[in-house]
Amino acid sequence: MTLIRTLLTSLTLPVLLNACQVYSSKLDTPAPAVRLQGQLQVDGEQLHFTPCQEQRRFLLVDARETGIRREAATLADDTSTTLFADLAGQLGASQSDDDGRFEISRIYRLQGEGHGCDDLNFRRLVLRASGNEPFWQVEVGNRGLVLNRPDNEPLALPYLEEQLPDGRLHLSSEANGQRLELWVAPQHCVDTMSGALNHLSAELRLDGQVLRGCAYYGATRN
Questions:
Q1: Which domain holds residue 94?
Q2: Distance of CA 135 to the CA centre of its chain
Q3: pLDDT at position 183, please?
Q4: CA distance 163 to 165
């Protein structure tokens, strides 16, 4: 009986240990990041975030050292300490008077002017890219893209998309006698006119002309 009891113990112990390891790994799995847009307020040494169309206010924590405090200080001035922010991270409880903590891991966009919570096209966007001198803008949706330029009617075109290594993206279109290529890369990019921070750099090649700017993903792509 002693021998049988010993054998049973030796057989069941690894199973129990494996079960504990599986259970532990499930507990250690981090919650998925959420993407939120809203108002970022610079309040002394702290940053607070209020999502669009909400009353809740979160204490913002830079969990991945994105440098958002430095970027916010650069954009904010003496007359305005409220910015628009498009961020990804995890929501958690807070010990302060706030409604919780927003531990951010990624900055999609940070800006002091322009469309923010009132951007009606954002929910339908795959990508928006733009540049200056001369101004240009490309808005990409699931059904096509639209090229906007001063003194030109908006030009709607179909496009082909190619995913490249390192998170790069290549969009191309050839219609109406025009050849368009848009190259996008995951790179810190600051708008030369507004100072807005974007998480993507962009290069538009249009009929042999090369135009550079910044870009960010819309709500239909993270």
A1: 34-111
A2: 23
A3: 98
A4: 7
